[in-house]
Amino acid sequence: MGEQKKRLQEFLDKIRRDLDRTIEFWSKYSLDKEHGGYFICLANDGHVYDETKYTWLESRQVWMYARLYNELERFKTPEILATAEHGAQFLLMHMKRKDTGKCYLSLNREGLPVKEQRTIYSECFYLMAMSELHRATGNQQYRDEAIDMMKQILHWVLVDDSGLGRKKLAGNMPADTLAVPMMLLCLIEQLTTMDPDLASSYADTEQWCLSQVTKHVQRDGSVILENVSPDGKELPGCQGRLTVPGHAIEAGWFLLQRAQKLKDPTLKSLAIDKFILTSFNRGWDTKYGGLFYFLDVDGESPVQLEWDMKLWWPHNEAMIALLMAYIERRDADLLEKFSTVFNYCYSHVHSRNAAARVCFHVFDNQKNEDSNDNDTQDLHQHRNSSRRPGT
C-alpha cells in the first residue's frame, strides 16, 4: 500500500504541474478582451489561428474556471473568477436563441451565429457553465439560466423533440443512443452539486436515465453498444454493432458517481465491471497501445473513417474512470491500468514543449515529438484505414 501511495503522489504531482501551466497559458492567450468570450483556436506560441468561437468549448472553459475556483484553494482568486464571468457574459449575450431556447454550436468573434446543431449538447454545456458559476458567485441569474435550460432539455428528451429540428424520415431506424441518458445523469450531478435540495426534483429523471443507460449492456454483459432499439434490443447492421470505448468508459464513471451517492453496490459493480473494464479491455490496442475511437463488436471494419485514431479525450475519460474505480475497490490491477493509460498519454499525447495543447490523435505507434511548430504534419501520415480492427 505504501508503494501505491507513492505512485499516486507521483501521478498527482505531474498532473498538478500540467494543470497549472495549462491554466496559465489559456488565461494569458485565450481571453478576447475586445468582444468577450474566449479564443479557442490557439497555436503553441499562443497566437490565434481562427476566431470562430465554439460554444461547447466556450462553455466548458467557463465551467473549468468556476470549478477550479470552487474546489481548489490555489485557484480561488479574483482573477480566476473574473475570467469565468468574462466567458459567461459572452454566452448570456450570444449563445442562446430567444425564440426557441436552442443554443448555437458556433459563433463568430463578435457573437453572431455560425452554426446550430439538432441535438441537446450545446445546451447541456451552457447549463453546466451557468450552474457552476452560480456556485462561485451566488448570482441568481446563473442559477435561473441553468434550471430553465434543464427544463427545456427534459422537454426535448422526454416530451417532444420537434423543437430540435430533426426530421422524421421513413427509412430511419428508431434508435436510442447512450449519449442522451448519460449526459442527463451528468447534468443531474451538476445541478445537485449546485443545490443538493434539487435532488428530489430530479429523482424520477435519474431513475429513467439509469434504466436507459443500462439497456446498452448487451450480449450477456460482454459489450456496451452505443445504439439500441427503444425497447432495449440490439439493432441490425453497423449502427447496432457500434461500440465507442471512450464513451462507454465515460458513462461508467458517471454511473459510479451516482452509485456512490445512492450507496448502491449493484450499480457500482455494473459501472466498474461492465462499463469501465469491459469497454477498456475491448478498446485498448494491445499492439501499439491507446484506445481505439470506434469499434465494431463483431470485428467488422467500422464505417467511421477515423475509427483507429487515438484521440485524447477517451484516454482522459479512462484515467478518470480507472482512478475512481481504484479508489472504490483498492484493486491494484485498476491502478496498473490507470498507470498504463497515464504512461501512454505522457509518451504519445502529452505536448512537452508547449503549454497550449495536446495532439488530437496518434496513428498506431507514431508519436508526436513536438519537434517544431509544424508538428501537426506528423499526424497525417498514411494509414490503411480499410484494415480490420486488430489486424
UniProtKB/TrEMBL annotation:
Keywords: Isomerase
EC annotation from Swiss-Prot or TrEMBL: 5.1.3.8
Record carries keyword Isomerase: yes
Pfam families given in the database record: GlcNAc_2-epim
Basic residues biased stretches: 382-391
GO BP annotation list: carbohydrate metabolic process
Family to which the UniProt record says this protein belongs: Belongs to the N-acylglucosamine 2-epimerase family.
Identification of the protein by name: N-acylglucosamine 2-epimerase
